[in-house]
Protein backbone atom coordinates (compact mmCIF):
# COMPACT_ATOMS: atom_id res chain seq x y z
CA UNK A 1 0.00 0.00 0.00
CA UNK A 2 1.07 3.56 -0.60
CA UNK A 3 1.46 5.49 2.68
CA UNK A 4 0.02 8.99 2.62
CA UNK A 5 -1.08 11.69 5.02
CA UNK A 6 -3.56 14.53 4.61
CA UNK A 7 -1.94 17.91 5.10
CA UNK A 8 -4.63 18.80 7.63
CA UNK A 9 -3.24 16.14 9.97
CA UNK A 10 0.11 17.94 10.47
CA UNK A 11 0.38 21.33 12.23
CA UNK A 12 2.18 24.29 10.69
CA UNK A 13 2.01 25.91 7.25
CA UNK A 14 1.89 23.89 4.06
CA UNK A 15 5.67 24.02 3.62
CA UNK A 16 6.28 22.65 7.13
CA UNK A 17 3.63 19.99 6.61
CA UNK A 18 5.23 18.75 3.38
CA UNK A 19 8.74 18.70 4.86
CA UNK A 20 7.57 16.81 7.97
CA UNK A 21 5.64 14.26 5.88
CA UNK A 22 8.66 13.63 3.68
CA UNK A 23 11.06 13.38 6.62
CA UNK A 24 8.84 10.78 8.29
CA UNK A 25 8.95 8.68 5.13
CA UNK A 26 5.47 9.13 3.67
CA UNK A 27 5.06 8.40 -0.05
CA UNK A 28 2.37 10.98 -0.62
CA UNK A 29 0.07 13.71 0.70
CA UNK A 30 -3.54 14.70 0.27
CA UNK A 31 -3.68 18.46 -0.16
CA UNK A 32 -6.39 19.91 2.06
CA UNK A 33 -7.87 22.94 0.32
CA UNK A 34 -7.52 25.36 3.26
CA UNK A 35 -3.83 24.55 3.65
CA UNK A 36 -3.33 25.70 0.08
CA UNK A 37 -5.56 28.79 0.46
CA UNK A 38 -3.61 29.99 3.50
CA UNK A 39 -0.23 29.41 1.86
CA UNK A 40 1.70 32.10 -0.02
CA UNK A 41 2.89 29.94 -2.93
CA UNK A 42 1.12 29.11 -6.18
CA UNK A 43 -0.24 25.58 -6.70
CA UNK A 44 2.50 24.96 -9.31
CA UNK A 45 5.17 25.89 -6.78
CA UNK A 46 3.58 23.55 -4.24
CA UNK A 47 3.70 20.77 -6.85
CA UNK A 48 7.41 21.49 -7.34
CA UNK A 49 8.07 21.53 -3.59
CA UNK A 50 6.37 18.16 -3.17
CA UNK A 51 8.30 16.71 -6.11
CA UNK A 52 11.61 17.97 -4.68
CA UNK A 53 10.77 16.25 -1.39
CA UNK A 54 9.92 13.00 -3.18
CA UNK A 55 6.25 13.29 -2.23
CA UNK A 56 3.46 12.37 -4.57
CA UNK A 57 0.30 14.52 -4.35
CA UNK A 58 -2.28 11.76 -4.19
CA UNK A 59 -5.48 13.80 -3.83
CA UNK A 60 -7.07 17.18 -3.41
CA UNK A 61 -9.90 17.56 -0.90
CA UNK A 62 -12.63 18.24 0.08
CA UNK A 63 -15.28 19.03 -2.53
CA UNK A 64 -18.49 19.58 -0.56
CA UNK A 65 -22.24 19.76 -1.11
CA UNK A 66 -22.17 18.64 -4.72
CA UNK A 67 -24.48 15.74 -5.51
CA UNK A 68 -28.28 15.55 -5.71
CA UNK A 69 -28.95 19.29 -5.60
CA UNK A 70 -32.13 20.83 -7.02
CA UNK A 71 -31.82 22.00 -10.65
CA UNK A 72 -31.26 25.66 -9.73
CA UNK A 73 -28.10 24.85 -7.78
CA UNK A 74 -26.86 21.94 -9.85
CA UNK A 75 -25.18 24.03 -12.56
CA UNK A 76 -23.41 26.18 -9.97
CA UNK A 77 -22.01 23.05 -8.33
CA UNK A 78 -20.55 21.89 -11.66
CA UNK A 79 -19.05 25.34 -12.27
CA UNK A 80 -17.43 25.19 -8.84
CA UNK A 81 -16.01 21.77 -9.68
CA UNK A 82 -14.45 23.06 -12.91
CA UNK A 83 -12.70 25.80 -10.96
CA UNK A 84 -11.30 23.22 -8.49
CA UNK A 85 -10.20 21.04 -11.42
CA UNK A 86 -8.11 24.00 -12.64
CA UNK A 87 -6.33 24.16 -9.27
CA UNK A 88 -5.89 20.40 -9.22
CA UNK A 89 -4.40 20.55 -12.71
CA UNK A 90 -1.72 22.97 -11.50
CA UNK A 91 -1.08 20.86 -8.43
CA UNK A 92 -0.95 17.66 -10.43
CA UNK A 93 -3.50 16.10 -8.07
CA UNK A 94 -5.07 13.04 -9.73
CA UNK A 95 -8.02 12.48 -7.38
CA UNK A 96 -10.79 14.76 -6.08
CA UNK A 97 -12.51 13.74 -2.84
CA UNK A 98 -16.23 14.47 -2.87
CA UNK A 99 -17.91 14.27 0.55
CA UNK A 100 -21.54 13.32 0.79
CA UNK A 101 -23.81 16.35 0.71
CA UNK A 102 -24.70 17.97 4.06
CA UNK A 103 -26.76 20.82 2.59
CA UNK A 104 -30.40 21.12 3.73
CA UNK A 105 -31.23 21.55 0.01
CA UNK A 106 -29.80 18.14 -0.94
CA UNK A 107 -32.39 15.75 -2.35
CA UNK A 108 -32.90 12.25 -1.00
CA UNK A 109 -32.44 10.80 -4.45
CA UNK A 110 -29.69 8.20 -4.89
CA UNK A 111 -30.32 7.93 -8.64
CA UNK A 112 -29.79 11.66 -9.03
CA UNK A 113 -26.68 11.53 -6.86
CA UNK A 114 -25.33 8.69 -9.05
CA UNK A 115 -26.05 10.62 -12.25
CA UNK A 116 -24.34 13.77 -10.91
CA UNK A 117 -21.26 11.84 -9.81
CA UNK A 118 -21.07 10.04 -13.16
CA UNK A 119 -21.27 13.40 -14.95
CA UNK A 120 -18.55 14.82 -12.68
CA UNK A 121 -16.36 11.78 -13.32
CA UNK A 122 -16.85 12.28 -17.06
CA UNK A 123 -15.74 15.92 -16.84
CA UNK A 124 -12.80 14.92 -14.63
CA UNK A 125 -11.75 12.19 -17.05
CA UNK A 126 -11.26 14.83 -19.76
CA UNK A 127 -8.59 16.37 -17.54
CA UNK A 128 -7.11 13.13 -16.24
CA UNK A 129 -8.79 13.53 -12.82
CA UNK A 130 -10.64 10.77 -10.96
CA UNK A 131 -13.41 11.26 -8.40
CA UNK A 132 -13.67 9.56 -5.00
CA UNK A 133 -17.00 9.66 -3.16
CA UNK A 134 -17.01 9.50 0.63
CA UNK A 135 -19.93 9.14 3.05
CA UNK A 136 -19.70 11.65 5.90
CA UNK A 137 -21.17 10.30 9.14
CA UNK A 138 -23.35 13.46 9.34
CA UNK A 139 -24.27 13.59 5.63
CA UNK A 140 -27.79 14.83 4.86
CA UNK A 141 -28.92 11.61 3.18
CA UNK A 142 -25.77 9.53 2.64
CA UNK A 143 -24.04 8.66 5.93
CA UNK A 144 -22.90 5.07 5.57
CA UNK A 145 -20.28 3.66 3.25
CA UNK A 146 -22.76 1.03 2.12
CA UNK A 147 -25.09 3.79 0.85
CA UNK A 148 -22.16 5.57 -0.82
CA UNK A 149 -21.11 2.31 -2.46
CA UNK A 150 -24.54 1.66 -3.86
CA UNK A 151 -24.49 5.15 -5.46
CA UNK A 152 -20.99 4.59 -6.89
CA UNK A 153 -22.10 1.22 -8.25
CA UNK A 154 -25.17 2.76 -9.81
CA UNK A 155 -23.11 5.59 -11.38
CA UNK A 156 -20.95 2.92 -13.00
CA UNK A 157 -18.20 5.24 -14.28
CA UNK A 158 -14.60 4.02 -14.46
CA UNK A 159 -13.38 7.41 -13.19
CA UNK A 160 -15.47 7.17 -10.00
CA UNK A 161 -14.65 5.13 -6.90
CA UNK A 162 -15.52 5.07 -3.23
CA UNK A 163 -13.40 6.57 -0.45
CA UNK A 164 -13.50 4.50 2.73
CA UNK A 165 -12.73 6.42 5.92
CA UNK A 166 -12.44 4.43 9.14
CA UNK A 167 -13.64 7.38 11.23
CA UNK A 168 -17.02 7.65 9.49
CA UNK A 169 -17.49 3.89 9.56
CA UNK A 170 -16.73 3.38 13.27
CA UNK A 171 -18.25 6.65 14.52
CA UNK A 172 -21.61 5.34 13.30
CA UNK A 173 -20.96 1.86 14.60
CA UNK A 174 -21.14 0.37 11.10
CA UNK A 175 -20.14 -3.22 10.46
CA UNK A 176 -17.11 -3.89 8.26
CA UNK A 177 -18.92 -6.75 6.53
CA UNK A 178 -19.94 -4.56 3.56
CA UNK A 179 -16.29 -4.09 2.57
CA UNK A 180 -16.31 -7.68 1.28
CA UNK A 181 -18.81 -6.59 -1.42
CA UNK A 182 -16.59 -3.79 -2.80
CA UNK A 183 -14.05 -4.80 -5.49
CA UNK A 184 -10.68 -3.28 -4.62
CA UNK A 185 -10.45 -1.60 -8.04
CA UNK A 186 -13.46 0.52 -7.09
CA UNK A 187 -11.87 1.84 -3.90
CA UNK A 188 -10.46 5.24 -4.93
CA UNK A 189 -8.66 5.77 -1.64
CA UNK A 190 -8.67 4.75 2.02
CA UNK A 191 -8.51 7.23 4.88
CA UNK A 192 -7.57 6.37 8.42
CA UNK A 193 -8.52 7.91 11.72
CA UNK A 194 -9.22 6.62 15.17
CA UNK A 195 -11.14 8.34 18.00
CA UNK A 196 -11.67 7.92 21.73
CA UNK A 197 -14.66 5.99 23.00
CA UNK A 198 -16.79 8.99 23.97
CA UNK A 199 -20.37 9.84 23.13
CA UNK A 200 -20.76 13.27 21.56
CA UNK A 201 -21.99 15.01 18.45
CA UNK A 202 -20.22 13.28 15.55
CA UNK A 203 -19.20 16.49 13.81
CA UNK A 204 -17.58 17.79 17.02
CA UNK A 205 -15.92 14.42 17.62
CA UNK A 206 -14.57 14.46 14.08
CA UNK A 207 -13.31 18.05 14.14
CA UNK A 208 -11.57 18.01 17.52
CA UNK A 209 -10.88 14.50 18.77
CA UNK A 210 -9.78 12.29 15.92
CA UNK A 211 -6.43 10.63 16.47
CA UNK A 212 -4.07 8.19 14.78
CA UNK A 213 -4.98 4.51 14.77
CA UNK A 214 -3.43 3.08 17.92
CA UNK A 215 -4.25 6.19 19.95
CA UNK A 216 -8.01 5.74 20.20
CA UNK A 217 -10.59 3.02 20.73
CA UNK A 218 -11.77 2.05 17.23
CA UNK A 219 -10.79 -1.37 15.80
CA UNK A 220 -8.88 0.20 12.89
CA UNK A 221 -6.63 -2.86 12.58
CA UNK A 222 -9.71 -4.91 11.69
CA UNK A 223 -10.58 -2.31 9.03
CA UNK A 224 -7.12 -2.64 7.47
CA UNK A 225 -7.35 -6.43 7.57
CA UNK A 226 -10.73 -6.29 5.78
CA UNK A 227 -9.15 -4.13 3.03
CA UNK A 228 -6.21 -6.51 2.70
CA UNK A 229 -8.65 -9.42 2.25
CA UNK A 230 -10.13 -7.50 -0.71
CA UNK A 231 -6.64 -7.22 -2.17
CA UNK A 232 -6.65 -3.44 -1.81
CA UNK A 233 -3.19 -2.11 -2.60
CA UNK A 234 -3.79 1.59 -3.23
CA UNK A 235 -3.32 4.77 -1.21
CA UNK A 236 -3.95 4.64 2.51
CA UNK A 237 -3.89 8.05 4.17
CA UNK A 238 -4.18 9.47 7.66
CA UNK A 239 -6.84 12.17 7.83
CA UNK A 240 -6.92 13.54 11.37
CA UNK A 241 -8.49 16.69 12.75
CA UNK A 242 -7.26 17.07 16.31
CA UNK A 243 -6.86 19.94 18.75
CA UNK A 244 -3.95 18.10 20.36
CA UNK A 245 -2.15 17.60 17.04
CA UNK A 246 -2.52 21.29 16.24
CA UNK A 247 -0.55 22.14 19.36
CA UNK A 248 2.14 19.52 18.61
CA UNK A 249 5.18 19.85 16.34
CA UNK A 250 5.00 18.97 12.62
CA UNK A 251 7.90 16.51 12.98
CA UNK A 252 6.44 14.63 15.94
CA UNK A 253 2.96 14.38 14.46
CA UNK A 254 4.36 13.08 11.17
CA UNK A 255 6.57 10.52 12.95
CA UNK A 256 3.59 9.39 15.02
CA UNK A 257 1.61 9.02 11.79
CA UNK A 258 4.32 6.76 10.36
CA UNK A 259 4.42 4.69 13.58
CA UNK A 260 0.67 4.27 13.37
CA UNK A 261 1.00 3.20 9.71
CA UNK A 262 3.69 0.59 10.49
CA UNK A 263 1.61 -0.70 13.41
CA UNK A 264 -1.41 -1.15 11.10
CA UNK A 265 0.67 -2.89 8.43
CA UNK A 266 1.88 -5.34 11.06
CA UNK A 267 -1.76 -6.17 11.78
CA UNK A 268 -2.25 -7.29 8.20
CA UNK A 269 0.48 -9.89 8.70
CA UNK A 270 -0.88 -10.96 12.11
CA UNK A 271 -4.40 -12.34 12.40
CA UNK A 272 -6.45 -11.06 15.36
CA UNK A 273 -5.82 -13.03 18.56
CA UNK A 274 -9.50 -13.82 18.93
CA UNK A 275 -9.72 -15.79 15.66
CA UNK A 276 -9.94 -19.54 15.98
CA UNK A 277 -6.68 -20.04 14.06
CA UNK A 278 -4.58 -17.90 16.36
CA UNK A 279 -6.38 -19.05 19.49
CA UNK A 280 -4.56 -22.35 19.07
CA UNK A 281 -1.24 -20.66 18.26
CA UNK A 282 0.87 -19.65 21.25
CA UNK A 283 0.80 -15.92 21.98
CA UNK A 284 4.08 -14.28 20.92
CA UNK A 285 6.56 -13.53 23.73
CA UNK A 286 6.21 -9.98 25.03
CA UNK A 287 8.71 -7.54 23.54
CA UNK A 288 9.67 -6.31 27.00
CA UNK A 289 9.07 -8.27 30.16
CA UNK A 290 10.28 -6.26 33.13
CA UNK A 291 12.01 -3.18 34.48
CA UNK A 292 15.71 -3.96 34.88
CA UNK A 293 16.58 -0.62 36.46
CA UNK A 294 15.53 2.95 37.04
CA UNK A 295 18.27 5.57 36.72
CA UNK A 296 18.25 8.82 38.66
CA UNK A 297 20.37 11.81 37.85
CA UNK A 298 21.58 13.95 40.74
CA UNK A 299 24.41 16.25 41.67
CA UNK A 300 26.68 15.35 44.59
CA UNK A 301 24.51 16.97 47.27
CA UNK A 302 21.26 15.66 45.88
CA UNK A 303 22.78 12.19 45.64
CA UNK A 304 23.28 12.32 49.42
CA UNK A 305 19.63 13.17 50.05
CA UNK A 306 18.55 10.54 47.59
CA UNK A 307 20.77 7.96 49.32
CA UNK A 308 19.11 8.89 52.60
CA UNK A 309 15.63 8.68 51.10
CA UNK A 310 16.36 5.32 49.50
CA UNK A 311 17.96 4.09 52.71
CA UNK A 312 14.83 4.95 54.64
CA UNK A 313 12.84 2.86 52.16
CA UNK A 314 15.12 -0.10 52.88
CA UNK A 315 17.46 0.17 49.88
CA UNK A 316 21.14 -0.63 50.37
CA UNK A 317 24.05 0.73 48.39
CA UNK A 318 25.25 -2.60 47.03
CA UNK A 319 27.41 -1.77 43.98
CA UNK A 320 29.60 0.92 42.51
CA UNK A 321 30.18 1.43 38.78
CA UNK A 322 33.64 0.35 37.65
CA UNK A 323 34.48 3.52 35.71
CA UNK A 324 31.81 6.12 36.44
CA UNK A 325 30.48 8.02 39.43
CA UNK A 326 27.39 5.82 39.50
CA UNK A 327 25.91 3.89 42.43
CA UNK A 328 23.48 1.01 42.54
CA UNK A 329 20.89 0.59 45.29
CA UNK A 330 19.08 -2.71 45.52
CA UNK A 331 16.19 -4.31 47.36
CA UNK A 332 14.24 -7.38 46.28
CA UNK A 333 14.13 -7.29 42.46
CA UNK A 334 14.45 -3.50 42.38
CA UNK A 335 17.59 -1.88 40.97
CA UNK A 336 17.90 1.88 41.38
CA UNK A 337 20.91 3.55 39.78
CA UNK A 338 22.07 7.01 40.86
CA UNK A 339 24.21 8.72 38.24
CA UNK A 340 26.43 11.69 39.20
CA UNK A 341 28.95 11.24 36.38
CA UNK A 342 29.88 14.40 34.51
CA UNK A 343 29.82 14.63 30.74
CA UNK A 344 27.04 12.07 30.42
CA UNK A 345 23.46 12.10 29.23
CA UNK A 346 22.46 12.00 32.91
CA UNK A 347 24.28 15.25 33.56
CA UNK A 348 22.72 17.05 30.60
CA UNK A 349 19.32 15.73 31.70
CA UNK A 350 20.04 17.09 35.17
CA UNK A 351 20.80 20.50 33.71
CA UNK A 352 17.38 20.51 32.09
CA UNK A 353 15.31 18.92 34.87
CA UNK A 354 17.20 18.78 38.17
CA UNK A 355 17.20 15.65 40.34
CA UNK A 356 14.96 13.21 38.50
CA UNK A 357 14.59 9.90 36.70
CA UNK A 358 16.57 10.25 33.46
CA UNK A 359 16.38 6.67 32.16
CA UNK A 360 14.63 3.34 32.56
CA UNK A 361 16.13 -0.01 31.64
CA UNK A 362 13.53 -2.32 30.11
CA UNK A 363 14.32 -6.03 30.12
CA UNK A 364 13.84 -8.07 26.97
CA UNK A 365 14.39 -11.71 26.18
CA UNK A 366 14.86 -10.94 22.47
CA UNK A 367 17.03 -7.91 21.95
CA UNK A 368 17.51 -8.55 18.22
CA UNK A 369 13.77 -8.51 17.60
CA UNK A 370 13.29 -5.40 19.72
CA UNK A 371 16.17 -3.52 18.08
CA UNK A 372 14.76 -4.28 14.62
CA UNK A 373 11.46 -2.77 15.76
CA UNK A 374 12.95 0.41 17.17
CA UNK A 375 14.55 1.01 13.77
CA UNK A 376 11.35 0.26 11.88
CA UNK A 377 9.42 2.62 14.14
CA UNK A 378 11.84 5.56 13.66
CA UNK A 379 13.02 5.62 17.28
CA UNK A 380 16.08 7.84 17.63
CA UNK A 381 18.94 5.63 18.85
CA UNK A 382 21.21 6.85 21.60
CA UNK A 383 24.87 5.87 21.99
CA UNK A 384 26.40 6.20 25.43
CA UNK A 385 30.09 6.39 26.27
CA UNK A 386 31.38 3.04 27.52
CA UNK A 387 34.79 1.95 28.78
CA UNK A 388 36.45 -1.21 27.36
CA UNK A 389 34.90 -4.37 28.79
CA UNK A 390 31.67 -2.64 29.79
CA UNK A 391 28.25 -3.50 28.45
CA UNK A 392 27.06 -1.52 25.47
CA UNK A 393 23.37 -1.34 26.28
CA UNK A 394 21.34 -0.05 23.32
CA UNK A 395 19.06 2.86 24.14
CA UNK A 396 16.41 4.93 22.43
CA UNK A 397 14.99 8.32 23.26
CA UNK A 398 11.61 7.85 24.88
CA UNK A 399 8.64 9.99 23.99
CA UNK A 400 9.71 12.48 26.66
CA UNK A 401 13.25 13.71 27.20
CA UNK A 402 14.46 10.51 28.94
CA UNK A 403 16.14 7.36 27.68
CA UNK A 404 14.90 3.81 27.49
CA UNK A 405 17.67 1.24 27.71
CA UNK A 406 16.93 -2.15 26.18
CA UNK A 407 18.55 -4.72 28.42
CA UNK A 408 18.88 -8.34 27.33
CA UNK A 409 17.91 -10.65 30.17
CA UNK A 410 17.72 -14.41 30.11
CA UNK A 411 19.45 -17.62 31.13
CA UNK A 412 23.21 -17.33 30.64
CA UNK A 413 23.15 -13.55 30.16
CA UNK A 414 24.87 -11.70 33.01
CA UNK A 415 22.93 -8.92 34.72
CA UNK A 416 24.09 -5.39 33.95
CA UNK A 417 25.51 -4.92 37.46
CA UNK A 418 27.54 -8.12 37.25
CA UNK A 419 29.55 -6.65 34.36
CA UNK A 420 29.67 -2.88 34.85
CA UNK A 421 29.59 -2.69 38.65
CA UNK A 422 31.65 -3.99 41.53
CA UNK A 423 29.95 -5.16 44.71
CA UNK A 424 30.59 -3.24 47.90
CA UNK A 425 31.86 -5.10 50.95
CA UNK A 426 29.41 -5.67 53.74
CA UNK A 427 26.51 -4.43 51.67
CA UNK A 428 24.43 -7.52 52.30
CA UNK A 429 20.85 -6.79 51.30
CA UNK A 430 18.38 -6.49 54.17
CA UNK A 431 15.53 -4.20 53.20
CA UNK A 432 12.00 -3.52 54.35
CA UNK A 433 10.40 -6.21 52.21
CA UNK A 434 9.92 -4.21 49.00
CA UNK A 435 9.99 -6.80 46.26
CA UNK A 436 9.63 -5.22 42.83
CA UNK A 437 8.67 -2.10 40.90
CA UNK A 438 4.90 -2.08 40.70
CA UNK A 439 4.45 0.97 38.49
CA UNK A 440 6.18 4.09 37.25
CA UNK A 441 3.88 7.03 36.75
CA UNK A 442 4.58 9.90 34.36
CA UNK A 443 3.26 13.42 33.98
CA UNK A 444 2.97 14.35 30.33
CA UNK A 445 1.73 17.41 28.44
CA UNK A 446 -1.67 17.13 26.77
CA UNK A 447 0.03 17.60 23.40
CA UNK A 448 2.32 14.59 24.15
CA UNK A 449 -0.27 12.25 25.64
CA UNK A 450 -1.41 10.53 22.45
CA UNK A 451 2.12 10.41 21.09
CA UNK A 452 3.33 8.66 24.24
CA UNK A 453 0.49 6.13 24.13
CA UNK A 454 1.25 5.31 20.51
CA UNK A 455 4.97 4.94 21.18
CA UNK A 456 4.54 2.35 23.92
CA UNK A 457 1.70 0.56 22.17
CA UNK A 458 3.30 0.29 18.75
CA UNK A 459 7.04 0.06 19.37
CA UNK A 460 7.02 -1.89 22.63
CA UNK A 461 3.72 -3.76 22.43
CA UNK A 462 2.11 -2.25 25.54
CA UNK A 463 -1.62 -2.42 26.14
CA UNK A 464 -3.52 0.74 26.99
CA UNK A 465 -6.30 1.00 29.57
CA UNK A 466 -9.44 3.09 29.18
CA UNK A 467 -9.05 6.67 30.46
CA UNK A 468 -9.88 7.59 34.06
CA UNK A 469 -10.53 11.07 35.45
CA UNK A 470 -8.78 12.12 38.65
CA UNK A 471 -10.17 15.08 40.54
CA UNK A 472 -7.43 17.45 41.64
CA UNK A 473 -8.52 20.40 43.85
CA UNK A 474 -7.21 22.65 41.06
CA UNK A 475 -8.31 20.87 37.89
CA UNK A 476 -9.02 17.55 36.24
CA UNK A 477 -6.28 15.05 35.49
CA UNK A 478 -6.75 12.40 32.82
CA UNK A 479 -5.03 9.08 33.42
CA UNK A 480 -4.42 6.01 31.24
CA UNK A 481 -2.27 3.04 32.14
CA UNK A 482 0.16 1.36 29.77
CA UNK A 483 0.94 -2.23 30.67
CA UNK A 484 3.16 -4.96 29.26
CA UNK A 485 3.89 -8.60 29.99
CA UNK A 486 0.57 -9.07 31.77
CA UNK A 487 1.18 -6.31 34.28
CA UNK A 488 4.88 -7.00 34.90
CA UNK A 489 5.43 -3.44 33.62
CA UNK A 490 2.91 -0.72 34.40
CA UNK A 491 3.31 2.90 33.32
CA UNK A 492 0.34 5.10 34.25
CA UNK A 493 0.31 8.37 32.28
CA UNK A 494 -1.27 11.50 33.68
CA UNK A 495 -2.05 14.68 31.81
CA UNK A 496 -3.96 17.83 32.62
CA UNK A 497 -5.03 21.01 30.87
CA UNK A 498 -5.29 22.78 34.25
CA UNK A 499 -2.21 24.90 34.92
CA UNK A 500 -2.45 24.54 38.72
CA UNK A 501 -3.13 20.78 38.86
CA UNK A 502 -0.43 18.67 40.55
CA UNK A 503 0.43 17.23 37.14
CA UNK A 504 1.01 20.60 35.48
CA UNK A 505 2.76 22.07 38.52
CA UNK A 506 5.11 19.10 38.44
CA UNK A 507 5.77 19.71 34.74
CA UNK A 508 6.36 23.43 35.31
CA UNK A 509 8.91 22.71 38.04
CA UNK A 510 10.46 19.87 36.08
CA UNK A 511 10.58 21.92 32.86
CA UNK A 512 8.99 19.12 30.86
CA UNK A 513 7.39 15.73 31.09
CA UNK A 514 8.83 12.92 33.13
CA UNK A 515 8.53 10.34 35.89
CA UNK A 516 6.45 11.67 38.77
CA UNK A 517 6.25 8.66 41.03
CA UNK A 518 7.62 5.17 41.46
CA UNK A 519 5.48 2.56 43.19
CA UNK A 520 7.26 -0.32 44.93
CA UNK A 521 5.44 -3.53 45.74
CA UNK A 522 5.48 -5.46 49.00
CA UNK A 523 3.62 -8.52 50.25
CA UNK A 524 2.57 -7.11 53.64
CA UNK A 525 2.22 -3.35 53.83
CA UNK A 526 1.30 -3.37 57.52
CA UNK A 527 4.65 -5.02 58.24
CA UNK A 528 6.51 -2.44 56.12
CA UNK A 529 4.65 0.65 57.37
CA UNK A 530 5.91 0.73 60.99
CA UNK A 531 9.51 0.57 59.69
CA UNK A 532 9.21 3.70 57.55
CA UNK A 533 10.39 7.07 58.83
CA UNK A 534 7.07 8.83 59.64
CA UNK A 535 8.62 12.16 58.59
CA UNK A 536 8.83 10.86 55.03
CA UNK A 537 5.25 9.58 54.79
CA UNK A 538 2.50 11.69 53.22
CA UNK A 539 -0.14 12.29 55.93
CA UNK A 540 -3.72 11.23 55.16
CA UNK A 541 -6.59 13.08 56.90
CA UNK A 542 -8.69 11.30 59.56
CA UNK A 543 -11.90 11.99 57.59
CA UNK A 544 -10.69 9.54 54.99
CA UNK A 545 -10.64 6.68 57.51
CA UNK A 546 -14.09 7.51 58.88
CA UNK A 547 -15.41 7.19 55.34
CA UNK A 548 -13.44 3.99 54.71
CA UNK A 549 -15.29 2.33 57.55
CA UNK A 550 -18.64 3.35 56.09
CA UNK A 551 -17.68 2.30 52.54
CA UNK A 552 -16.10 -1.07 53.00
CA UNK A 553 -17.15 -2.23 56.45
CA UNK A 554 -13.55 -3.12 57.33
CA UNK A 555 -12.99 -4.18 60.92
CA UNK A 556 -12.07 -1.46 63.38
CA UNK A 557 -8.64 -2.91 64.13
CA UNK A 558 -7.61 -2.88 60.47
CA UNK A 559 -8.87 0.67 59.97
CA UNK A 560 -6.98 1.77 63.07
CA UNK A 561 -3.73 0.28 61.65
CA UNK A 562 -4.32 1.86 58.25
CA UNK A 563 -4.94 5.26 59.84
CA UNK A 564 -1.94 5.05 62.17
CA UNK A 565 0.38 4.45 59.20
CA UNK A 566 -1.39 6.64 56.61
CA UNK A 567 -2.23 3.66 54.41
CA UNK A 568 -4.83 4.22 51.69
CA UNK A 569 -7.15 1.37 50.77
CA UNK A 570 -9.20 0.39 47.75
CA UNK A 571 -11.33 -2.59 46.98
CA UNK A 572 -12.92 -3.67 43.71
CA UNK A 573 -14.36 -6.85 42.24
CA UNK A 574 -10.87 -8.00 41.31
CA UNK A 575 -9.26 -7.56 44.74
CA UNK A 576 -7.81 -5.21 47.33
CA UNK A 577 -5.10 -2.55 47.17
CA UNK A 578 -3.10 -0.79 49.89
CA UNK A 579 -0.95 2.29 49.30
CA UNK A 580 1.42 4.56 51.21
CA UNK A 581 2.84 7.68 49.59
CA UNK A 582 6.06 9.40 50.54
CA UNK A 583 6.61 13.12 50.57
CA UNK A 584 8.20 14.43 47.40
CA UNK A 585 11.72 15.32 46.29
CA UNK A 586 11.67 17.89 43.46
CA UNK A 587 8.05 16.81 42.85
CA UNK A 588 9.08 13.14 42.56
CA UNK A 589 7.68 10.73 45.15
CA UNK A 590 7.49 7.05 45.96
CA UNK A 591 4.52 4.85 46.69
CA UNK A 592 4.51 1.53 48.50
CA UNK A 593 1.74 -0.81 47.45
CA UNK A 594 0.32 -4.17 48.34
CA UNK A 595 -1.69 -5.56 45.46
CA UNK A 596 -4.02 -8.46 46.32
CA UNK A 597 -5.10 -9.56 42.81
CA UNK A 598 -6.29 -5.95 42.23
CA UNK A 599 -5.41 -4.59 38.76
CA UNK A 600 -5.94 -0.83 39.19
CA UNK A 601 -3.89 1.98 40.72
CA UNK A 602 -6.09 3.19 43.59
CA UNK A 603 -7.82 5.68 41.29
CA UNK A 604 -10.50 6.30 43.92
CA UNK A 605 -7.77 7.45 46.33
CA UNK A 606 -5.97 9.69 43.87
CA UNK A 607 -8.00 12.75 44.88
CA UNK A 608 -7.14 12.18 48.58
CA UNK A 609 -3.46 11.89 47.68
CA UNK A 610 -3.50 14.96 45.45
CA UNK A 611 -5.26 17.06 48.13
CA UNK A 612 -2.66 15.93 50.70
CA UNK A 613 0.15 16.84 48.30
CA UNK A 614 -1.47 20.21 47.76
CA UNK A 615 -1.36 20.85 51.53
CA UNK A 616 2.29 19.79 51.59
CA UNK A 617 3.02 22.13 48.71
CA UNK A 618 1.37 25.06 50.50
CA UNK A 619 3.25 24.25 53.71
CA UNK A 620 6.48 24.12 51.76
CA UNK A 621 5.77 27.47 50.13
CA UNK A 622 5.14 28.96 53.58
CA UNK A 623 8.36 27.34 54.90
CA UNK A 624 10.40 28.65 51.96
CA UNK A 625 9.11 32.16 52.62
CA UNK A 626 10.44 31.99 56.21
CA UNK A 627 13.72 30.39 55.18
CA UNK A 628 13.33 26.67 56.01
CA UNK A 629 13.12 23.89 53.45
CA UNK A 630 11.99 20.34 52.75
CA UNK A 631 12.67 17.56 55.23
CA UNK A 632 14.50 15.44 52.61
MG1 LIG B 1 -12.36 11.48 5.22
MG1 LIG C 1 0.44 5.12 41.91
Please describe what this structure looks like.
The structure is a single chain. The protein has 22 helices and 26 strands. 37% of the residues lie in helices and 25% in strands. Strand 6, helix 7 and strand 7 (187-192) form a beta-alpha-beta unit. It has three domains: 2-278, Divalent-metal-dependent TIM barrel enzymes (TIM Barrel); 288-423, 2,3-Dihydroxybiphenyl 1,2-Dioxygenase, domain 1 (Roll), CATH 3.10.180; 437-625, 2,3-Dihydroxybiphenyl 1,2-Dioxygenase, domain 1 (Roll), CATH 3.10.180.10. One magnesium ion (MG) binds next to loops.
CATH topology of the largest domain: TIM Barrel
N/C terminus separation: 57 Å
Named once each, the bound ligands are: magnesium ion
How does the overall form come out from the CA principal axes?
elongated
> Can you tell me the number of structural domains?
3
Using only C-alpha atoms, the radius of gyration works out to 28 Å
Short description:
Helices cover 37% and strands 25% of the residues.
Amino acid sequence: MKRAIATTTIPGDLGEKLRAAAAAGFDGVEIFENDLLYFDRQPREVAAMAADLGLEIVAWQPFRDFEALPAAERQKAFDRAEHKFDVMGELGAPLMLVCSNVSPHALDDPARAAADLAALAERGARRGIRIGYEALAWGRHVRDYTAAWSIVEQADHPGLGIVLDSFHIFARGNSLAGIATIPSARIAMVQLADAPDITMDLLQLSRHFRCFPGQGAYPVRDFVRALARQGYDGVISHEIFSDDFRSGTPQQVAVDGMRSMVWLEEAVDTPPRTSSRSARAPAPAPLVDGIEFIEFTADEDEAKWLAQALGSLGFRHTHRHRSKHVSLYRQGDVNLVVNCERGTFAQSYHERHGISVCAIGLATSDLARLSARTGRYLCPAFESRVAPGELRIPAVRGPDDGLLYLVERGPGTPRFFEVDFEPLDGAEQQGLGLTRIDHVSRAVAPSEFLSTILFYRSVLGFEVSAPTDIVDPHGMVLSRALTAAEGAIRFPLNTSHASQSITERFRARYAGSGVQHIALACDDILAVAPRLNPLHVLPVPANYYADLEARWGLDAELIESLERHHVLYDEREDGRYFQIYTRSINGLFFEIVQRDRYQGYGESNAAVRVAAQQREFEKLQAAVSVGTSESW
